[in-house]
Amino acid sequence: MYDLIIRRARLVDDTLADVAIAAGKIAVVGQLAADACAHKQLDLAGNYRLSAGWIDSHVHCYPSSPIYHDDPDLVGVSSGVTSVVDAGSTGTDDIDEFYALTRSAKTNVFAFLNISRIGLLRQNELADMADINKQQVKQAIDGKPGFVIGIKARMSSSVVGQNGTKPLVLAKEIQQENQQLPLMVHIGNNPPDLDEIADLLTQGDIITHCYNGKPNRILTPAGTLRESIQRALKRGVLLDVGHGSASFSFEVARQAIALGIFPHTISSDIYCRNRLAGPVHSLATVMSKFFTVGLSLAQVIGCVTENAAAALRLTSKGQLKPGFDADLTIFDLRQGPQLFADAEGESVNGEQLLVPLAAVVAGEVLLTEQGKAAHVFTL
């Protein structure tokens, strides 16, 4: 007896499969006997798609943040996203409160700890080097295993003040002293220059806002890839989208992807304001924008499942295979004219929109608003 059986789900490769779930894990992916039993069954009749649960590797969902805040479930399961990673909203001062708040969420919530103790209490959290305390960071990491899964350093002029790359040098030291945890680095306006930042990064480090349209971007004025980014990619540095309110340009994405510079992960950098007013709206909306710049459905889904899980070292998530966590996303791929906006004021016409209908977390089916409105299936 399984806990849940989902029948005739259309997978990313267009094949149909049944999925059985038991004790919070995927038990079977394939064809189940007609008489297979479960406490709950869901028949998608080949009409709706299923993938491993979507992971948004860059959100801001600490409700108490004075700058960038949101509710974890509004950016998570309500949007078809089974796991979110808050990217540096909290430092050591607030990580305990954030952890406590997330225990009641249906969404799996993880955190990149801001290397500044104050987190995003203000925009220039790395302007005072005294706010970076390596010992306190270590204590927070050791005290919240499985929740604090990496560290975050925002390396743009408004954040670091006169400190240049000094905070990043300290971040790399913290990383080396803490099991080489993933390090996510925000890039924006210079100084420091992107070349200086990129040359400090090593295998597994994540550059977020990789397709921003600012002068300090990954492309040269001539439209070629900066040599420092070429070197970083060869070392195994990863590129994350981190769309946000001011950090995604269709033009930069088009040029980079034409050069073969694809994102490793697609993330939203969502919080309440850019969720409600745009241009982000949801992870699904950000994912859909990548159809307009040449990515396939398989590539887009890979960026929020297997690739994201690998980058974040979430070893039990991101794959639709027996033994993995029973985190799944049920969605529709709707055809028809769509208008998408980037963070630079450019609008692009698209023809495909991802519509999340349900998030399944540890085997529990949680309908999105679109799923409820569509009345597409009942348990």
From TrEMBL:
Q: Site annotated as Transition state stabilizer: where? A: 154
Residues bound to Zn(2+) 1: 58, 60, 152, 269
Tell me the residues on which N6-carboxylysine occurs. Answer: 152
Which keywords label this protein?
Hydrolase, Metal-binding, Zinc
- Look up the domain of life of the source: Bacteria
Q: Look up keyword Hydrolase and say if it applies.
A: yes
Q: Where does Zn(2+) 2 bind?
A: 152, 186, 209
- Domain Amidohydrolase-related per the UniProt entry, residue ranges: 250-348
A GO molecular function term, named singly, is:
metal ion binding
State its Enzyme Commission number(s).
Answer: 3.5.2.3
Q: What is this protein identified as?
A: Amidohydrolase/deacetylase family metallohydrolase
Organism this protein belongs to: Serratia fonticola
